[in-house]
Structure formats: C-alpha cells, structure tokens
Amino acid sequence: MNTIKSNKKALFALAIGGFGIGLTEFVIMGILTEVSVSLGVTIPQAGHFIAAYALGVVVGAPLLTGLGSKLSPKKMLFLLMIWFTVFNTLSGLAFGYKSLLFLRFLSGIPHGAFFGIGAVVATKLAKKGKSAQGIAIMFSGLTVANVIGVPIGTYLGQQFSWSVSFYLVGFVGLLALASIYLWMPKIEIEASEQNVSVTKGLKNTELWALIALTTIGTGGFFAWYSYVAPLITDVAGLPNHFVGYAMMLAGLGMVVGNFLGAKMAELFSPLKAVIISLSVMSAVLILNMFIATNPYLLMGMTFMIGVISFTVSTPIQMAIINTSKGSEMLGSSMNQSAFNMGNASGAYLAGLPIAFGYGIIYSSLVGAILAFAGVSIAVAILIVRKRRAIKYKKMAISSLET
C-alpha cells in the first residue's frame, strides 16, 4: 500500500513538471503583444520567441537524453528541472530581442528530455497493465496548464508585466524540483538503456516512421489551433474576448482527451488507437469548415477538437516506447521533438492557403489532410509489421522442417 501511495506522489511530481512546461510553452502566446511593445519589436518578430523555444525542444531532446543516459532517472529529471527553472526565470530578466530569443531557446532544451524520460518512468511507476494511465497522469499537467496556468499567467503578464509570467513559471519549476526530490523513488534503469547511443536509436527505421507519424499527424491539430483566434473573430464574428473562452474550452477538451486516449491505448493496441484518433480528427476538421460561421457550433467544436487532439498523445508515446526497446528514453524524447516539429510545420502549412487568399477556414482543411496523412503512415507501419511477422513465421517453420 505504501509503495502504491509513494508511486502516486511520484506521478504527481511528473505532472507538476508537465504543468510548468505547458505553462511556459503556451503562456507566451497570451502575452505576445506585451512582450513586443516592451522590447520594441513587431508581433511577427515576437513570434520568433515561440519558434526559438520549439527549436530548443528539438535540439535538446535527443542530445540531453543521450548525454544523461548513465544517470539515474531521478537525478536526470532533477537536473533537467534545475535547467528549466533557471532559464525560465532568467527569461523574465531579458532586456532585449536577442537576449530573450537566446533564453527562450535555452528554456526549451530540457522540455523533450523531461517528458521523454518521464514517460518511461511513468510506465514503471504505474500499476501493472496501467502504463498508459501513468503516462496520462504525467501529461495531465500539460493539459491542466492550458485550463488554469496559461489564463493566470496571461492575466498577470497583461496586468503587471510580461516578466511576471516567466517568474510564475520559475516558481512552478521550484515546486517541481521539491516534489521530484521528495517523492521520486530511485528507479533502476536497464543496462541496455545505460549503454544506449544516439547512433543505435537512429538505425531503428520503425522509430523514424513513428517520428514522421507524430510530426505529420499532430501537425493537423496545430494547423487548426494556430489560427483558432481569427476563426472565432473573423469567421464566426464573435468578440475578441471569446478567444479566451475558446482556449479554455480547448484546454478542458485536452484534459478529457488525455485520459480517454490512455483508455483507448489499453483497449486497443497503441498504434490502432492512434489510427482511430487521427481518423476522427480528420473528419471533424472537415466538418469544422462547414459549421465555422455558426458561433455556437464552432465553440462546441472547439471543445471536441481539444478532446480528440489529446487522445493521440499517450498512445503514440506508448508506441514509441514499445518500438525503441533498449533505447526507450531516447525514442520517447525524440517523439517530443516530433510534437514540436508538428507544431511548427502545421502552423506554417495552414498559413499557406490563407496567404493565397483562400480564407481562414482552409486551415482546417490543411489540418484534416495532415491528420489523414498520419493515418496512412500508421496503417503502413501495421502492414510492414504484419509482413515481417509472416516472414519470421515462415523462416521458423522452414528451420523446423530442416
């Protein structure tokens, strides 16, 4: 009983870290105007701070996971959270465009490694047969941050100073540090994981296929999410303050979808759960195009898309862990890089039809195409797996006959 209770506390520690990461990743979007005015840059230039963070995630995930492979997971998580806390707090002290750009890049570096290592640790802390639930608890911090943390951080940044938003992130980082130190047990890592090299991980072709699936498939959600504000104000004709309500609805949907996705990963195989999620997402995004002018239906659809989007997170993370045996932490961390590449590519691709004058609603069409492309990759992986299994079975039968 004591072990179960301590493991729950350890999972909660991971959730606190996830809350802090979700807060720093998304609060910048709510205070972008305040940052641009304070530093004397344009809104598009201020958008570079979002891109710099994402680049930090992409670079840091495999790099830090590989460098820290010989450390215990508890020590590695603790060090990553120290890095996170220091550079997010320093971001609040930035005095110009270049300094904040550099600090946002450094702030993003521990993101992928924390979630990647944390996901593997969560599977070890969870009850037997409940690995998906363990991962979902960790990711719940990220989803709750969108509902509670980001609105609070945005309010503080708008009412006082954008620096206060980053000080809030630093404070959450201190809470995560304390909880990891006090509640995270010492977990032994596999010998194969200690000896993992980046080269070994890069040779896994199915891992790369899953990375592509994450990048392209989840890019469908970000294609929609990146342009949700103009969709609500320009297409549905709602006042600006409804954007905040819509973001909260999407965040609530993410909370629900996170645990629904964990249940799906238990009922089906992780990859089949991903296929179901992305198929539904593709259909719903197309439907969103036709109902976008109706403000009531659009707000309801915002919640629904939030739900569907996060049913993908836990299943794809489990699929990555299952595929990268012997280098689970590296594979899991690389998947976090893929999520951020999906963020950047989805927003960029969805902006193309808008730039060519086709209208905001076509961002949803781009999202639907990306989600369906993710389904195609997942189906292809399953087909290759089946053919490989048949091949091995024939080879086994042939060896028995000889």
SSE blueprint:
Layout lengths: L1 H29 L1 H8 L3 H4 L1 H20 L5 H19 L5 H29 L5 H29 L2 H22 L7 H4 L3 H5 L2 H21 L2 H8 L6 H26 L2 H22 L3 H16 L2 H11 L4 H28 L6 H40 L1
Helix pairs in contact: 1-6, 1-7, 1-8, 4-6, 4-17, 5-6, 5-8, 6-7, 6-17, 7-8, 7-13, 7-16, 11-14, 11-16, 11-17, 11-18, 12-13, 13-14, 13-15, 13-16, 14-15, 14-16, 14-18, 16-17, 17-18
Compact summary:
By secondary structure, the protein is mostly helical. The protein has helices spanning 2-30, 32-39, 43-46, 48-67, 73-91, 97-125, 131-159, 162-183, 191-194, 198-202, 205-225, 228-235, 242-267, 270-291, 295-310, 313-323, 328-355, 362-401.
Description:
This protein is mainly α and 402 residues long. Helix content is 85%, strand content 0%. The protein is built from 18 helices and no strands. The termini are far apart. The mean pLDDT is 86.
Globally, the shape reads globular
The separation of the N and C termini measures: 53 Å
Proportion of residues in extended strands: under 5%
Number of helices: 18
Rg for CA atoms: 21 Å
Stretches with pLDDT under 50, minimum 5 residues: none
Q: Determine the fraction of residues in helical runs and give it as a percent range.
A: over 70%
- Average pLDDT, rounded to a whole number, is 86
How many strands, what sense, and barrel or not for the largest sheet? none
Total number of beta strands: 0
**What is the string of SSEs from the N terminus onward?**
HHHHHHHHHHHHHHHHHH
Class based on secondary structure composition and strand pairing: mainly alpha
